[in-house]
Specification:
about 220 residues, alpha+beta, 60s Ribosomal Protein L30, Chain: A, 2 domains, 9 strands, disordered N terminus, binds zinc ion
Length: about 220
Amino acid sequence: MSGRGRKKKPMYTFDEYLDMATTMHRGCLCPGQVLGTRMALLGCRLLGIDPPDREKRLFVFVEMDRCFADAIAAVSGCRLGKRTLKHVDYGKAACTFYDDRTRRAVRIVARDDSRDRVVLYAPPGLEKYEAQAHAYRVMPEEELFMVQEVMVEIPRQDRPGRPVSRVVCAECGEGINDRREVRLNGRVLCRACAHGSYYESFSARCLVTTTREEELTPC
Ligand SMILES: [Zn+2]
Ligand SMILES: [Zn+2]
């Protein structure tokens, strides 16, 4: 760790961070990768964290599952499978960066009016997305983002580590981790059985083959 007050040298250059984002986005360098890279770098800088976070201090709540979310994951190092990246489906180009060590959090929103300023920062003649990608790279942070300090609590059942509970749904028989179950009329149900699911089942029969005849009967 560097001494207090000494300015830390960034681990990577902006272009290296952008490369990580582009790689995660299947090689596509779209405006969302530039925007997301800048947003993640700003969030980390405001919290005093070197991205990608290797100390497991950082959690990111990403409010939209579009292009920029890949850059947020790539640059911050936070991952869905590590429970450090949370998708909160608000449909907004916004993220909250939370430092579990200091318990500080900042929420950063991409400004809608930054699109109107693209012409001021991109050379003329570029195609729309190229112009946006170019402009988002150089546009001052205050023209790209709004930042607010917020409070975030991460309950035990949302944290990395072993599941805090596991129960079985009384309707479908599937296991449910981390207190995601619902109690309805005295029964313990999964959210799909309690509130309806995003999928519709064609049949109750399992499609994977098994040698045991009894397992082929509808479950
Ligand atoms: Zn994209
Ligand atoms: Zn169920």
